[in-house]
Design brief:
mainly alpha, 3-stranded antiparallel β-sheet, 4 helices, about 50% helix, rod-shaped
């Protein structure tokens, strides 16, 4: 079984993260992150000062944009992490359905083996694993020593 690693710079994840970073500008979404919420409020107040402040327009605009970009970057980083997590979870779900086990018939060590999908395993089933096998499900090692892929 082969699995493709999720790249940090995967286009689909970055595109969705960019959209999500703007969606998360909603104050209700920002309430989950108090520091970023206060920064967003500061950016809004600073933008309001663009038209009422006696300070130079370019200075106030620069401060407002820096505050806004800080919140956008935090949202983007969070969205990328969420996207990677979802992609890895999907990969694990696919691997679970594509993994096969060699289950011992009748649950006896001397019984013949049958090849079954990992999703068909039940509590109490005995499976045979050899060196470099992928472990099909959670369980306990009853006997033996080998290097196996537990992921």
């Amino acid at each position: 079984m082969s699995t493709k690693a999720v790249s940090l710079f995967d286009r689909a994840i970055l595109r969705q993260a960019t959209l999500d970073s703007f969606k998360k500008l909603n104050p209700r979404a920002q309430l989950k992150h108090p520091v970023m919420f206060v920064t967003l409020i500061g950016a809004a107040l600073t933008f309001q000062q663009l038209f009422t402040s006696t300070e130079p327009f370019s200075y106030v605009l620069q401060v407002a944009l820096w505050l806004l970009f800080t919140v956008l970057f935090a949202n983007f980083a969070e969205a990328v992490a969420e996207g990677r997590g979802k992609a890895q979870a999907d990969t694990l779900k696919r691997a679970r359905t594509q993994t096969f086990a060699r289950r011992l018939r009748d649950g006896l060590a001397s019984a013949a083996e049958e090849k079954v999908s990992a999703t068909d395993l039940h509590r109490g089933d005995l499976v045979v694993c050899e060196t470099n096998d992928v472990i099909p499900d959670d369980g306990d090692v009853i006997e033996g020593i080998a290097s196996v892929d537990e992921s």
